[in-house]
């Protein structure tokens, strides 16, 4: 009886338990299912966010990493240099003259060649969200070598996750090479619509052509590549993840080198150190090791880091954001300065730039620029690139900083840059911050290398009083001798500046002296001073350290320092004013 009662009680309790358990289990099941979904979404967001904060380094390989790649054999495979047989030398030389790179060599290499994975090891272990934005890769080209252009396309197709690559948009900037006409059109049919080609009806230059490409593209993100690139392993997801997190980030891959003679693929910065884009006051693009302040923000060496600017050619951006910023200033012509325009605009108007160590892309650095600037170049008085710089600094620099530019490029003050009122209106409309803000918060390392420039006391041609001749840097790389040449009045290598701190400069270089003679030298980074002093009375250029004067040897027509002598006409110099 008791036994039965106990048993009954137990059965009753079990019954009650079951009654309670059913809804609980049901609730738990649905909740955990929902929770699992939430967690997946959260993780994908988190992974995107971690592109800046802490990457989720997973066991084994991260997603989108290639597995079981077949072995390949042939010229140039794995990015090895390829040397054409001697009988092809003429063909190779001719193609180098035509393209600034050895297209004959490129033609011998597979369009699908493998290249070595040059990323940091830990890049293989990152996990990226699956639903990264769809991407239009935009490649503008003007008379590029066919095989180099198509290898760029093949590498993008082969090394990008299919569902992220919306299209490759080729924009022809009025090429006249035969093989870029029908042959190109029929070749791209094999990509089943993934590769689209549009053509300019006249030469626009790369800057306007890129803006056109951005307008025509239909992906959410645009990625620009030069027409002679090879993208490396899993290059795309790390570029997209920061943009997925924040649509106002521009991302930039690390740019490896491809040799223009042998097509060898060479990693940059193989020492594991990171560099970022800066500039000197003549607006030449420079790279600088990432400062400690920025390094410290990162938990892993493979994480993206902020950069003041970028080289220009290769980057990713939300398409609509690019257009909201007015694309590139349409007044910039053909080539140069657009990288600064876009960088300053992004930073000062509320966006940011991140360089992404886990995204690597190879780029062929040409031996020389094989094309001219066409009609657009001829229209303008003064060098077109400096005119572009002037538009950019007049729009984005504060007055104080404009002076540094004009000190370094004195002739630019006289160039006609056209109308920038629309650019200024955009800056106002978007309520963009000052250049001082940019220097204090983003480009704070520029001054370490390139301090503010003291004003020029004198600038112009530096002429000898005794002989009809001018100092000339001759376009040589330092260390080299300073030449004496016929005075041509156009400036360039004959435009010499003496600043208030005694530095004698020509372009971005310095004129220095030692016991052997007077030389063209690299200016010491971080300093703007020098040993020179000019006396308008005696017309002497005194070297204060050696207490000697710059002299011209009338026989050898070479420069040296010799004891100052007011009666020696060969020690007398005049700065002659230059104008465009
Ligand atoms: O009139 C032109 N029309 C074009 O469509 C002239 C050029 N182009 C095309 C050309 O075919 C190529 O695909 O534009 C692209 C860039 O021209 P390049 O390769 O002759 O330029 P670059 O590599 O010498 O120069 C760098 O600076 C340029 C300044 O305007 C551009 O920003 C380039 O994209 C840029 N290249 C890079 O940043 C790659 C990294 C190397 C560096 C520095
Ligand atoms: Mn290029």
**CATH architecture descriptor name of the largest domain:** Alpha-Beta Complex
**Which strand order spans the largest sheet, edge to edge or round the barrel?**
15-20-19-18-17-13-25
- Would you identify the CATH H-level superfamily of the largest domain? Spore Coat Polysaccharide Biosynthesis Protein SpsA, Chain A
Number of helices: 16
**Alpha-carbon Rg, integer:** 30 Å
Mass-distribution shape: globular
Intertermini distance: 118 Å
Give the total of domains.
3
Low-confidence stretches: 23-55
| Average pLDDT taken over every residue | 91
User: What is the CATH domain class of the largest domain?
Assistant: Alpha Beta
Could you name the CATH topology of the largest domain? Spore Coat Polysaccharide Biosynthesis Protein SpsA, Chain A
Main sheet record: 7 strands, antiparallel
Strand content: 15-25%
* Number of strand elements: 25
Q: How would you summarize what this structure contains?
A:
The protein has 580 residues and is α+β, with helices and mostly antiparallel strands. A hairpin with a 4-residue loop joins strand 23 (548-553) and strand 24.
Structural account:
The chain is α+β, with helices and mostly antiparallel strands and 580 residues long. The chain folds into 3 domains: 1-50; 77-364, Spore Coat Polysaccharide Biosynthesis Protein SpsA, Chain A, CATH 3.90.550; 456-576, Trefoil (Acidic Fibroblast Growth Factor, subunit A) (Trefoil). It has 16 helices and 25 strands. The protein has a 7-stranded antiparallel beta sheet, with no helix packed on it. A 5-stranded mixed beta sheet has the order 3-2-1-4-11, sandwiched between helices. Strands 5, 6, 7, 10 and 12 form a 5-stranded mixed beta sheet that branches. Helix 1 packs across helix 7 (236-245) and helix 10 (338-348) runs parallel beside helix 12 (384-396). The chain is globular and about 115 Å long. The model is unreliable at 23-55 (pLDDT under 50). Manganese (II) ion binds at residues 226, 228, 313, 363. It is a single-pass type II membrane protein. Its cofactor is Mn(2+). It comes from Hermetia illucens (Black soldier fly). It holds the Pfam family Ricin_B_lectin. One of its GO terms (molecular function) is carbohydrate binding.
């Amino acid at each position: 009886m008791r036994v039965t009662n106990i048993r009954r009680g137990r059965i009753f309790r079990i019954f009650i338990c079951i009654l309670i358990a059913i809804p609980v289990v049901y609730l738990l099941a649905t909740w955990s299912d929902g929770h699992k979904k939430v967690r997946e979404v959260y993780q994908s967001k988190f992974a995107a966010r971690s592109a800046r904060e802490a990457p989720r380094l997973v066991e084994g390989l991260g997603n989108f990493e290639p597995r079981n790649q077949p072995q390949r054999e042939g010229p140039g495979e794995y990015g090895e240099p390829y040397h054409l047989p001697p009988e092809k030398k003429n063909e190779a030389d001719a193609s180098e003259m035509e393209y600034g790179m050895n297209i004959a060599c490129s033609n011998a290499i597979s369009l699908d060649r493998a290249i070595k994975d040059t990323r940091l090891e830990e890049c293989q272990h990152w996990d990226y969200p699956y639903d990264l934005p769809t991407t239009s890769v935009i490649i503008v080209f003007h008379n590029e070598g066919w095989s180099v252009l198509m290898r760029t396309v093949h590498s993008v197709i082969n090394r990008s996750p299919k569902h992220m690559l919306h299209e490759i948009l080729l924009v022809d900037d009025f090429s006249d090479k035969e093989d870029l006409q029908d042959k190109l059109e029929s070749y791209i049919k094999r990509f089943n619509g993934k590769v689209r080609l549009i053509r300019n009806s006249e030469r626009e230059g790369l800057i306007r052509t890129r803006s056109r490409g951005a307008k025509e593209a239909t992906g959410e993100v645009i990625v620009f590549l030069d027409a002679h690139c090879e993208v490396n392993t899993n290059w795309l997801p790390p570029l997209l993840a920061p943009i997925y997190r924040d649509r106002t980030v521009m991302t930039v891959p690390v740019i490896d080198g491809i040799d223009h003679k042998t097509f060898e693929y060479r990693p940059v910065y193989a020492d594991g150190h990171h560099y970022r884009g800066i500039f000197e006051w003549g607006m030449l693009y420079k790279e600088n090791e990432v400062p400690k302040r920025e390094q410290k923000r990162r938990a892993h060496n493979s994480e993206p880091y902020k950069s003041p600017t970028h080289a220009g050619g290769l980057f990713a951006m939300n398409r609509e954001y690019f257009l909201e910023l007015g694309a590139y200033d349409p007044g910039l012509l053909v080539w140069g300065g657009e990288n600064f325009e876009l960088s300053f605009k992004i930073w000062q108007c509320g966006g940011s730039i991140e360089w992404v160590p886990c995204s690597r892309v190879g780029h062929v650095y040409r031996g020389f620029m094989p094309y001219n600037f066409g009609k657009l170049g001829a229209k303008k008085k003064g060098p077109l690139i400096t005119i572009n710089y002037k538009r950019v600094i007049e729009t984005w620099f504060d007055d104080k900083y404009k002076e540094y530019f004009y000190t370094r490029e004195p002739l630019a003050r006289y160039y006609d840059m056209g109308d920038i009122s629309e650019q200024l209106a955009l800056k106002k409309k978007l309520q963009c911050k000052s250049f001082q803000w940019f220097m204090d918060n983003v480009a704070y390392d520029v001054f370490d290398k390139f301090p503010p420039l003291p004003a020029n006391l004198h600038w112009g041609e530096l002429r000898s009083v005794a002989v009809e001749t001018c100092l000339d840097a001759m376009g040589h790389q330092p260390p080299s001798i300073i030449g004496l040449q016929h005075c041509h009045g156009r400036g360039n290598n004959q435009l010499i500046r003496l600043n208030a701190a005694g530095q004698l400069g020509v372009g971005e270089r310095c004129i220095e002296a030692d016991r052997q003679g007077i030389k063209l030298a690299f200016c010491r980074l971080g300093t703007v001073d020098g040993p020179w002093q000019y006396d308008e009375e005696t017309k002497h250029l005194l070297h204060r350290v050696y207490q000697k004067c710059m002299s011209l040897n009338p026989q050898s027509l070479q420069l040296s320092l010799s004891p100052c002598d007011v009666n020696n006409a060969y020690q007398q110099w005049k700065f002659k004013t230059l104008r465009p």
